[in-house]
Amino acid sequence: MGVRKAFEMTKRVAEESNAHFVIHLDHGSWDECLEGIRLGLNSIMYDGAHLFVEDNIKTTRRIVEIAHAFGIP
Known about the structure:
The chain is of the alpha+beta class. 56% of the residues lie in helices and 12% in strands. The protein has helices at residues 3-16, 30-39, 53-69; strands spanning 24-28, 43-46.
């Protein structure tokens, strides 16, 4: 389905309710996380498990910096 379609569908349904909501990307790739940040997701979880530990730490830190710059915890 992809991040964009999943986000748009989820947001549309959530906005039709009276509930407070957070849209979370769980175990996203680098590209999926960047797309989620651009789209306005409220929560991002990057998955770098396929990388060597050092690269995983480096890319995770960078995603966190980018997410924080957009107000995403």
